[in-house]
Specification:
The complex is a heterodimer of chains A (about 325) and B (about 290).
Chain A: H1 9-24, H2 34-45, E1 50-57, E2 62-69, H3 75-83, H4 90-97, E3 103-104, H5 105-108, H6 111-116, H7 120-126, E4 131-138, E5 144-152, H8 161-184, E6 196-200, E7 205-208, H9 210-219, E8 238-239, E9 243-245, E10 247-249, E11 253-257, E12 259-260, H10 269-279, H11 284-291, H12 295-309, H13 314-325
Antiparallel strand pairs in A: 1-2, 1-5, 3-4, 4-5, 6-7, 6-11, 8-9, 9-12, 10-11
Helix pairs in contact in A: 1-2, 1-8, 10-11, 10-12, 10-13, 11-12
Chain B: H1 9-21, H2 27-38, E1 46-53, E2 59-64, E3 77-83, E4 90-96, H3 106-131, E5 145-149, E6 154-157, H4 159-168, E7 190-194, E8 198-205, E9 208-215, H5 224-234, H6 239-245, H7 250-264, H8 269-281
Antiparallel strand pairs in B: 1-2, 1-4, 3-4, 5-6, 5-9, 7-8, 8-9
The chains are: A alpha+beta (about 325), B alpha+beta (about 290).
Amino acid sequence: MPDTPSASENQSAELSHFILELYRHIGTIPQEAYKAWALDGLKRVLPFDSAFWAEGAEFGATIVDAHIHNSIHPANEWLADYAQFKEADPLALAVFENKGTTIYDADLMPREAWLADPLYGPFCRKHQIAYTLCTMDYDPTTTLVEVISIYRADSEHPFTAAEREQMQFLFPHLLETRRRNSQAYGSPPGPMLDDIAICEGNGLLHHAGEKFLTTLQKEFPHWHGPLLPEKLLKTHGIKTCNAVFPNQPSSALNLVCSQERSPFDMLTPAEQRVAKLLIAGHSYQDGAAQLSIGISTFNKHASTLYRKLNVEGRNELTHRFGSRLG
Amino acid sequence: MTKETIFNDRTSALILSLHRGKESCPVTEFKGWVFKQLGQVLDFDAASWRSSVGDDGEHLLDDYSPDLPKLNDKMPRLCASQTDELTTLSEHVTLYRLAGKRAFTSEEHLLLEMLLPHMSTSYRQNLLYAMQPPQNDPATGFGAYAICNAAGILHRASAAFTELLLLEEPEWQGPLLPWKAIATVGRRRHLEIKGSRIIVNLRRSEKLFHLHIRARTPIDDLSLAELKVARALANGSSYKTAAQHLKLSPSTVNNHAANIYRKLGVHNKAALVGLWQELEGSGKHF
């Protein structure tokens, strides 16, 4: 090992903060964007030039999802080039035998030896890979594999022993949060710390999430703890011009949420159901049948919601609000 | 190898378990549970954790300091705290060693400082879960959850999923799931597979299937009609009100009840209510 890894105060705070961010954003990043988002964050605490993050079943056989981060050539070209020697990749075999351990390619053999390899050498030159830190998780029962490699392009900037250790430290959290993020996909979000506050009956704070505070400060710019504004403690919460704060009083503590206000808050639940069906493209007849209401009632809800949302008709409704309701 | 730093596997595993344990541990035991975990990376004999709010921490929200020995100046101690300026919420954690033991190092101080944000986040999240438990929500729990394609090839699986799957199929090995029914699901969006020990629910989203496994309970043996009657009886209805409510004749309800008692292996309504609460309470059924 070239140097003695020692943790500085900054380093540990940065890493700790990054891990916290990962857990915080499980429910807020779309599944397809998660790997890119997490790798961008990783790059700030552990600099690299490009990266590879993939899951598969049966080592090397089925790639379920592969993300190539910041590659200079298109991702499918990268994968096609790699596919030519993936079974004979000594680095992949080394990580496969040491699951959870980050392997530094330069620790296995010198860079010159890697470059001299007839398959690996051209691949590294083409895709500008000078050094690699690679980590893998493997479950022998399910045969599911997950691997993250980060690459440096500059041969003058090798990874240090401390950086190898930090990658190994961060790897379980990248996996855990990615897995939870993909579980969250398609399901209603559960309680999230970020957009809620917990307080006593008199408003004394027990917890306030980051997003909650941002929204709160928009409405109450001069607010300062430890008591929440009295207004927020009304039985069912309040609506202000930018936000809604539903309040859920329970036996001992209150749960106050903050949500960005959407024009849909002005609609009644029945009107919201009608709006969703209209946006989904159902006819009045079909929509009325789905909700088990008469066509004339459906009609009435439609015209009221058009007026409330200030839209001319279905086309404008879909155009302006379609993406919001999915 | 050089000296181990604070970025080691044990510390990483501790952070992972803090972020997982917040969902299952009761609020009153949470801080104690955290200290137990902390003991795996830091050596200490006693500890306290104060959560407070207000300038200078004037409002004490929670003070956890179990079995503190009589403190004296000779005991090495390690303090870490964090305070949010805007909300004035703060956490103070102190670890003690018995007098005569070695002092805490700066490395240990760094470690505790690094862990504190995770301790406090999971403490708050635990509080939130207690107030608003997720209802079988895979987004928040690390449930028995998996994703597979239309051919039944596994794409993702949580550890809890594999564990339950092995209950039913001890010899199973991936990546192909053992249920042939998946390939024949056709255009349907939902499918329930009943095994002898587990129940699997499939939900299709585009080309993939989301799977949920739970352990099979005696309630799964009930027919739909029996389930309705059982639920009414377990919620305290008499046979008569259950019959009225479900628009059934009293003799039909009687029949169902006899079958329910037989299938669940109980002999009276009190036992039924008890069993129902137990299964419901385990969160495995509804």
